[in-house]
Amino acid sequence: MDDQTMVVGQQPTAAERADGRTDRSGRSDLARPLLIGAYAFPHGDATSNRLLQLARCAADAGTRTLVVNDWPCELAYPPPAGEVAGVDLVTLRVRGANRLARMSARVARPVRVLRALRRCDVGRGDVSVVLLPMAMMTVANWAVLRLALRCPVVVDASERHDRRQFRRGWLTPYYARHRWSTFLATRLVHRATAVSTTLAAYLRQHGLEVLVVPPQVDCDEFAPARPPSLREGLRLLYAGTPGRKDMLDVILRGIGQLSSHDQRRVSLTIAGVSRDDAAARSDLDVAVLDAVSADVTFLGRVPRDTVLALLGRSHFSMLVRPTGGYAANGFPSKVPESLAAGCPVMLNHTSDLSSYVHDGIEGLVLDGNGPDDVRQAIERALRLGDEDWAAMSRAARSRARDSFDHRAWRDRVSAFVARGDEDGRSRSSSG
């Protein structure tokens, strides 16, 4: 199997490694974290963005995490990108999008990663820890990387799905693989980063040492939001792919319960899904949509830059989710991004959101997840003045900078992933 490899960033030279000290295991003092991915990295989706920020804060000050990303066979390869700030990136790509090519690339992935490291002159002593997304936790990935590199493996758990999300339940291959990866992680590794306290508690029950790390952002990427005056109307935004996790139908029903006068003052932009896809693959009832007189616009899939621009022109981003299950275990990455853009959020509390979004400060918190709750929140937003909204926007950006920017997490994450060796003799818990 022929890999195309693109390397972005500066690797330590052989002379620099030779000058560095080594410990008893042969690990150089220039050793650094290695993160393995198989996504449209670095800005392809929520998982890619999470791994980018995790990689940025996993390395000690003065060093950079090495990321080896296996570009998905089924996705078109983008033009070569420039340097990715904070990481050194090696991108692998296998030609061919047929099922056999995808399966072969997936099975051979750990060996392909090791070959790529060898081509970059990265040896066993140059890697301090392997960071592996939970979805990529397989026996082969764990065993080959653990034995070949002789360093700990730390998994990142960003979700825990349940059967309600999938029409066929356990018969859904993705769901079955997800649960199998989680099972392996709880048996084979000893440390993990988790996106929420609920997910962390589950992993701790299985003896893992866990650090809770919510979705992170780079606040420097976001310009302050500057939507038009509220006197010209209330601009709402839903950005994402709702699937079975976000309650898009409830949002539309809530808007439909507004008075005719208030509906004329509201516009909702839905970015990330088309009208047809929303009708086919989410909880949206088209009849409810047709009955709404507010301005509702579907943009379909849009690039990340468009989402950032939309956040900057919106008064509130919206998110309604069920309580419990996957919503309690996960953490919606769209919330930190909205706060970083200075766009307050209109949502119900799930997961750890109550620790970060307070009613009337960083956003408007719904009393529940029903249409009446949405209607009442929008009516409150319609009563706001521009100064009230501006204060919420400033509070949102401050919250993002203090709680979600990757720089605020560097000391904690780098210390956690570098601590001790994964020999199974100490499996304590940390908050």
Give an overview of the whole structure.
This protein has helices at residues 14-19, 46-58, 99-107, 109-119, 139-149, 173-188, 197-205, 248-256, 260-264, 275-281, 286-291, 304-312, 325-329, 334-340, 371-382, 386-403, 406-418; strands at residues 3-8, 32-37, 65-70, 87-94, 127-133, 153-157, 191-194, 209-212, 234-239, 266-271, 295-300, 316-319, 345-347, 363-365. The chain has 431 residues and is α/β, with parallel strands linked by helices. Strands 1-4-3-2-5-6-7-8 form an eight-stranded mixed beta sheet, sandwiched between helices. The chain has a six-stranded parallel beta sheet with strand order 11-10-9-12-13-14, with helices on both faces. The protein is globular, with a radius of gyration of 23 Å.
**Integer average pLDDT:** 89
Query: How many helix segments?
Result: 17
Inertia-based shape: globular
Radius of gyration: 23 Å
Portion in helices: 25-40%
User: Reading side by side through the largest sheet, how are the strands ordered?
Assistant: 1-4-3-2-5-6-7-8
Q: What are the low-pLDDT stretches, counting only 5+ consecutive residues below 50? A: 21-25, 422-431
Sheet with the most strands, sense and barrel status: 8 strands, mixed
**What would you call the structural class?**
alpha/beta
β-strand amount: 15-25%
What is the straight-line distance between the termini? 43 Å
Strand tally is 14
